[in-house]
Design goal:
Blueprint: E1 5-9, H1 13-25, E2 29-33, H2 36-45, E3 50-54, H3 62-70, E4 80-84, H4 91-97, E5 102-105, H5 110-121, H6 156-162, H7 167-181, H8 184-193, H9 197-213, H10 217-232, H11 238-259, H12 264-267, H13 276-291, H14 297-308, H15 315-325, H16 329-342
Parallel strand pairs: 1-2, 1-3, 3-4, 4-5
Helix pairs in contact: 2-3, 7-11, 8-9, 9-10, 10-11, 13-14, 13-16, 14-15, 15-16
Length: about 350
């Protein structure tokens, strides 16, 4: 498999990093697309041996992207393999009907991933084995300084194995989870209160998938149940499941923050001074992108972090980044406006005026 080229279509950064780690260890070359629209452009602009296609994404779903790719006769034989945490009845059939060749459930299992790729990428080749020495055995205890021996609600050996034994990567992903999903329960609750049940279901779906990938099994289970009842609009059980989510999610977030050491570069606000001129310019660009629900706001967010010298544990900036990554552009716009006023960059506010 060395040198074969894969397009990974996945909108969630944590899921991206885990899958890329698996594929690189197996010798693949990987390109990443963050949504179906980017996937179509990538497929038309380059040559791939296979596409790993997430199903539920903002901008354009994996179903729609696959149908449009298949509409171009040049890509009739391109293997497209669905990846999804969506476990409702008929999900596999829907993937196949859209033109996908096969289906891998999330969280991704390495052996299943490689076996499926071997089936479609090079049918004449023998089955691919999991790269020797990368996964951690089920009973192994990590000894790397980057990871503690235990984190409340997290199966560390399984999560570390899913991260191909890379303790630094796994620790970084756990910290990322704590930063991005600390308010997941409140975000879902707010969407329900507004009557935006599909938005709430999407948030639960994303939380389920990411929690599964880092092996936060209790959070994964409650998010799965909440997604199912939101799908069926069983309003009488929302409150019960949201309460359960708080009970399992909060201890995980606290334990990650207490047990895992942040890299020095993330701890030191003095490591890079803020660039005030660039901050003002980037905020102006970002507010315009957010107001138009333009996905390029993610790139602008990266530029803003660079101009600010990093997030450095500041809650408002973590919230802003999470909202942008989740395509919650209205919420992100409110948070950006709050930061701009509080920090004195735009004392009268920075909300887009058209």
């Amino acid at each position: 498999m060395n040198g074969l080229k894969i397009l990974l279509v996945e909108d969630n950064e944590i899921n991206q990093q885990l899958t890329v780690e698996m594929l690189k260890n197996a010798g693949f070359e990987i390109d990443i697309a963050a949504n179906g629209s980017e996937a179509i452009q990538a497929v038309k602009g380059s040559s791939y041996d296979a596409v790993l296609m997430d199903v539920q994404m903002p901008v354009m779903s994996g179903y729609e992207a696959t149908s449009l790719i298949r509409a171009d006769g040049r890509f009739d034989e391109l293997p497209i393999i669905a990846m999804t945490a969506y476990a409702m009845n008929g999900a596999k059939e829907q993937c196949l009907a859209a033109g996908m060749n096969d289906y891998i459930s999330k969280p991704i299992d390495q052996e299943r991933l490689f076996t499926t790729l071997a089936r479609w990428v090079r049918p004449e080749a023998p089955p691919v084995q999991v790269p020797a020495g990368q996964p951690v055995s089920a009973g192994a205890q990590p000894t790397d300084d980057d990871l503690p021996k235990a984190i409340t609600g997290v199966d560390i050996p399984t999560g570390l194995r899913r991260a191909s034994g890379n303790a630094k990567l796994y620790a970084r992903l756990l910290l990322d989870f704590a930063g991005r999903y600390a308010t997941a329960k409140q975000d879902i609750e707010a969407a329900i209160e507004k009557g935006e049940l599909e938005e709430a279901r999407c948030l639960a779906h994303t939380l389920k998938g990411v929690a599964g990938n880092i092996s936060a099994t209790g959070v994964q289970a409650v998010a799965r149940d909440l997604e199912a009842v939101l799908e069926k609009e069983k309003t009488q059980v929302y409150a019960k499941l949201l309460a359960e989510m708080e009970l399992v999610l909060d201890p995980v977030i606290r334990s990650i923050r207490q047990e895992i050491k942040k890299p020095v570069s993330e701890k030191s606000p003095e490591s890079k001074p803020a660039d005030n001129r660039l901050i003002v310019q980037t905020m102006k660009q970002m507010v315009a992108l957010l107001a138009k629900s333009d996905p390029d706001a993610q790139f602008a967010m990266s530029c803003l972090k660079e101009a600010l010298g990093g997030i450095n544990g500041r809650r408002e900036l973590e919230d802003l980044e999470r909202h942008v990554d989740n395509y919650d552009f209205d919420l992100a716009l409110d948070v950006l406006d709050k930061i701009a006023v509080q920090d004195g960059y735009f004392p009268a506010g920075i909300k887009f005026d058209g």
